[in-house]
Each structure stands twice: as C-alpha cells, then as structure tokens.
C-alpha cells in the first residue's frame, strides 16, 4: 500500500502543477476540490482517467515533462493524493480540504470550490437531486457560494461586493462536514443499487 504523501511530496506536486499552470493545469487546491467531488459523488473515475482534465493542454505537450521518469513520478504523486482523499472518506475521518494562501496571504477557498464544482459538472444529472434535497442542498450551499464568488457573471455570484471574514470562515469551516454528508449520501445510494441489481 503506497504511503500517504509527505510535505516534500506535496511541495513537488504543487511545484509541477504551478509550472504547468500557464498551459491550463489545475493548481493543487483546485485539483483537491476536483478529486473530492469525484470521490464523494455518484461515480468515481480513476485518478489516471482524470489526468487530461487536471493537466489541460499540457497533457498532450511532449515538453511538459523532462523525461518519462518525471512523468511517472508525477502520475504516482497524483494517484497517491487521490487515494489519500478516498481513504479519508471511506474511513469516516474528518475531511480537511487542501486550501492554500493567495498572494496576499489569505485563505479564500475559491480554487478548491471551483474544482469541486468542475467535478460535479461531469455528473450533472446525478448531482441535480442534491440541490433539491433539504439537508444536502443546505450543506452544499457554502461550497457553491465559494465556487461562484468570482464568476464573471454578476447574476451567478451569491453575494455582490466583498465577503467579510466571518462569513468566509463559516463557508470554509462547512466544507468538511458537507463533503462527509455528500459522500454518505452517494455511498448509500450506490449500495442500494448494488443490492437491487446485484443478481443481474
């Protein structure tokens, strides 16, 4: 069983994604949100299957990595981060999103939430029922608020103007419980379907 990523591993992973950002690669925070939505949601892809989405145009650029070994090391780090999230969710341990400080030294959470929203969009129809669910819809609201806070369309933003520190702290603090609740919901639904169609 591969070991969880160390601080040095995360530094290497973040540095690679930052280097490839001009080519459209996700940041580590964005990727963490993206992976979390896929693993907590209705149907998890494999980590390898997500690489074209994580890297963007850099995925098809032969010069993105200096060698095959460098690419293999990157794929290994991505896969281990994916497993770290999956193991946390399966174990029922407290989920903590990977949130980074911006250039001003503030933790805003928008990249993570935008990544989560991007993961949801891959299975839009399945996620639609969450919005109509009284408890889960409310749990998801803070993530959606962060995801659309920077939307260029003012009508898509939940709040116009600056969000105060108290409200942002509330939104960020609500991410972990929301992810756990969503994972529980979709896990139960998958289990029910397996029982229903298990003999087919």
Automatic annotation (TrEMBL):
<dbReference type="Pfam" id="PF03695">
    <property type="entry name" value="UPF0149"/>
</dbReference>
<protein>
    <recommendedName>
        <fullName>YecA family protein</fullName>
    </recommendedName>
</protein>
<dbReference type="InterPro" id="IPR036255">
    <property type="entry name" value="YgfB-like_sf"/>
</dbReference>
<dbReference type="InterPro" id="IPR011978">
    <property type="entry name" value="YgfB-like"/>
</dbReference>
């Amino acid at each position: 069983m591969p070991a969880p990523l160390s601080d040095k591993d995360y530094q290497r992973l973040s540095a690679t994604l930052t280097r490839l950002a001009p080519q459209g690669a996700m940041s580590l925070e964005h990727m963490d949100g993206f992976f979390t939505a896929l693993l907590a949601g209705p149907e998890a892809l494999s980590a390898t299957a997500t690489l074209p989405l994580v890297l963007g145009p850099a995925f098809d650029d032969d010069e993105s990595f200096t060698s095959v070994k460098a690419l293999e090391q990157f794929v290994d780090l991505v896969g281990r981060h994916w497993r770290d999230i999956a193991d946390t969710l399966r174990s029922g341990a407290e989920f903590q999103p990977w949130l980074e400080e911006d250039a001003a030294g503030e933790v805003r959470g928008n990249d993570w939430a935008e990544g989560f929203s991007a993961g949801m969009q891959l299975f839009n129809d399945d996620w639609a029922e969450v919005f109509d669910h009284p408890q889960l819809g409310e749990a998801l609201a803070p993530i959606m608020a962060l995801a659309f806070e920077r939307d260029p369309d003012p009508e898509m933003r939940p709040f116009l103007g600056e969000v105060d520190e108290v409200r942002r702290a509330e939104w960020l603090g609500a991410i972990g419980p929301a992810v756990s609740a969503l994972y529980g919901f979709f896990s139960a639904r998958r289990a029910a379907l397996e029982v229903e169609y298990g003999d087919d």
